[in-house]
Amino acid sequence: MKSFVKRMRVGLVYNLKEEDEPPQSDLYAEYDSEETISAMENALLKNHDVVRIEADENMFEKLKSAELDIVFNVAEGRNGPARESQVPCVLDMLNIPYTGSDPITLAICLDKARAKEILHFYNIPTPRFEIFYNSKQKLNSLEFPVIVKPLREGSSKGIRNNSVVHSKEELEKVVYNCITVYNQPALVEEYLTGREFTCALLGNGKVRVLPIVEMVFDNLPKDAKPIYSFEAKWVWDTPDHPVEIFECPADIPASLEKKIRTICIKAYRVLNIRDWCRIDLRLDKEEIPNILELNPIPGILPKPEENSCFPKAARASGIDYDELINRVLKIASKRCGLI
Questions:
Q1: Fewest CB atoms less than 10 Å from the CB: which of 276, 280, 297, 317?
Q2: Dihedral, CA atoms, 283, 118, 83, 209, nearest 10 degrees?
Q3: Cβ–Cβ < 8 Å for 254, 270
Q4: Confidence (pLDDT) at 224
Q5: Which residues, in sequence order, are CB contacts of 308 under 8 Å at separation 6+?
């Protein structure tokens, strides 16, 4: 990748994961490890000066005094239903350019129901859903099986092997746990039984879809549900004992690949996503791709054995990790008029 016209002063803004978090805990699942933060920093240092700033209570003053040209933002935020918007709101107030989507888009995509309502308005397929505010609610328009998720989480937080439920008793128990543990409503969604994919997208205007990743669940433990649960993502699949559940590029007909790419680009545009995003999809019984959720701050773990899907798709297209990080920065810098 060619160097920038000028060397910039780049702020790397992040939330740090607690290293001693128990393996079964998902409290900090969305945050980045020191290893990932260092990998991003080292990639950026190839072309720029980098200032690391943790998105904590001291962030505002650090940003204000750092004299940055642009921020590479991977912060998930702290607390509240729009936490991913916290850093971009501060950056907009300080008039500091940054990578990724604006506060409105980030808040909408974090709230799965709001994002799905917009997708539905634009006739983009997404599974039907209901919002449960307490465990005593009954299904209104859906039939079993359904899948239960926290309304406003990512990184498979709250999506466990028991999240697919087949009865009223199961539903009440899982919804109660979801609301109690995550302190937010539960999204109860129709469970689609088809194949599952994720798409990595880059760009503004002309959007590039990287090679599609398929989750192939055949190699999960015997009693595992065929979903990309927290256990599948973080517990069963580890760098020391990887589980082969990914195929990239996905082995699919050209017609299906075209449908997935078209749906993802349309969703990317109608939700005003900027620079990059990972979009998760699943096929319904008619083999139509349905969008499950959009991740405008995608996970980017550096090691191939960690099976982080955005870097996996990038590598399949010939883009290594360092180039991916710098390409995202370049895309954002062009959008902001810095180069």
A1: 317
A2: 50
A3: no
A4: 87
A5: 299, 300, 301, 302
Pick the CATH number of 108-126+192-335 from 3.30.470.20, 3.40.1190.20, 3.90.650.10, 3.40.50.1240: 3.30.470.20
Low-confidence winner among 168-182, 206-220, 226-240 (lowest mean pLDDT): 226-240
The CATH number assigned to the domain with range 129-190 reads: 3.30.1490
Residues of the chain with CATH 3.30.1490: 129-190
The number of beta carbons lying within 10 Å of the beta carbon of residue 160 is: 22
Confirm or reject CATH 3.60.20.10 for domain 9-98, answering yes or no: no
Q: Indicate whether 5 pLDDT > 60.
A: no
